[in-house]
Amino acid sequence: MLLGDLLVRNVRKNPHKTALVCMEAHVRYSFKELDERVNRLANAFLHMGMRKGDRTAILGYNCHRHIEVFFAAAKSGMILVPLNFRLVGKELSFLLNDSEACTLIVGGDFLETVNSIRSEIKSVKNLVFVEEENSQTENYEGLISDHSPFEPEVEVEEDDTVTLVYTSGTTGVPKGVLMTHRNWFAAATNMVIALGINGSDITLHVKPFFHVGPIWPMLSHFYVGGTNVVIKGFDPKAVLETIEKERVTNINAAPVMILSMLDYPNLERHDLKSLRLLIYGASPMPVEILKRALSVFGNIMTQNYGSTEGIVLTRLDQKDHILDGSDSEMRRLASCGKEGINVDVRVVDEGGNGIFPGGTGEIIARGDQITRGYWKRPDETEKTLKDGWLYTGDLATLDREGYIYIVDRRKDMIISGGENIYPREVEEVIYTHPAVSEVAVIGVPDKKWGEAVKAVIILKQGKHVTEKEIIELCKRNLASYKKPRTVQFVKNLPRTPTGKILKRELREQNKK
């Protein structure tokens, strides 16, 4: 089955049901209206001279157009390149030139940025502006109104690439991940089964669409005839108000987003009874924050662990989110669960052998949702995909029940005096201090030990703690060599747009 068929099937079954709501643009489309807009846009691409396999990039805040362009690319056999709107011109030029995008769709907030790099993006032949029209560019709504609402006449197959999504670059230069119709279909159907998503569900998109995080929920809900609601970007006030207004049932959020909702003033005044599923992922949820979320939102939480290359790999189900259980049940709150539906997940040593409970190894996975490889990077593809397995670069351990516990990215592991130290283990201890809002633990150069442990901390508003107190807390709860040797208090931490803390940037700052 092809991704474009999701819309076609819903048009046959429920043509007038609400498919897509965009709060920013104040638009509400039925499946019939959405499908016709998608077809018009796909036919416009073809009329502009684009062909199957050509890349179409989109730069803009979250809106209904991201979904329209996704399906237009899928129906016309083209490849969508969603761009990170937080990047500067030089970074965007790299992605556009690397992907060899021939069409660029630009939101109104980014006209100045794009105009500043137009001479550098040689492959881009077609510029489509959402809110501007001139002789040198196309207008988005004009393209839709000027072209046919019928299905584009292009032969598309399940193994055709449909998206080229760039990694967040937490450990280096972004790489373009290739995903096919088959990959995305597998990811969507797996989550429909795992989460029990149904046609009455309404999902709210709070993650940016240049990441894989919103794509699988969008597809999963369309698969069963559900509704997708889009807001411009994450804002706790907008999220809470939209949940109430649209009676949202499902949200997929990063832990930092959930923390912002928990800290929002007068949270209890908002009616959140419609929520039945609060999914978190993109980075680990500190146990202390998870306990707080469970006490506020109730047992509606599910954790997904995955990557740009593999989408969702493991899940910690709602039944495992227990606030008052046995010691082993409480420990599971720090795990990322077990392998998901229709995906094989193992934790292996450097020889590729499965580890025993208590050991540490790398998470690897295989399944129909795993990427076919990286765009124009065969060496990186060969290092990451081996004998059909995706090597994630994430280090983990297992318990006797098979629950997987991520200890850290391989590249984030600290080696001090010959000892391996996993930052997350230290971070979990620091999070138990009532004054700590967020923390990142990194390794910094040390003449004696090679690397020394450093904690970078954001404090809760109005709270205070000293460096000595943090070090003593860790000393009481960890082996002495794992305790931070220095502590830095900051107002902000560098992050990817999906909320992951950029430890690479923190390490670079500490080399200076």
| Helix proportion range | 25-40%
Distance between the termini: 53 Å
> What portion of residues belong to β-strands?
25-35%
Mean residue pLDDT: 91
Q: Cα-atom Rg, whole angstroms?
A: 23 Å
The count of DSSP E runs of length 2 or more, i.e. the number of strands, is: 27
Largest sheet: 9 strands, mixed
Give the CATH topology of the domain at 413-509. GMP Synthetase, Chain A, domain 3
**How many helices?**
16
Overall CATH architecture of the domain at 413-509? 2-Layer Sandwich
Task: Catalogue the unreliable spans.
Answer: none
Order the strands across the largest sheet as they lie in space: 2-1-11-10-12-13-14-15-16
Shape: globular
Structural class: alpha/beta
Structural commentary:
This protein has 512 residues and is α/β, with parallel strands linked by helices. Helix content is 31%, strand content 26%. It is built from 16 helices and 27 strands. The chain is globular, with a radius of gyration of 23 Å. It starts with a helix and ends with a helix. The model has no long low-confidence stretch (mean pLDDT 91).
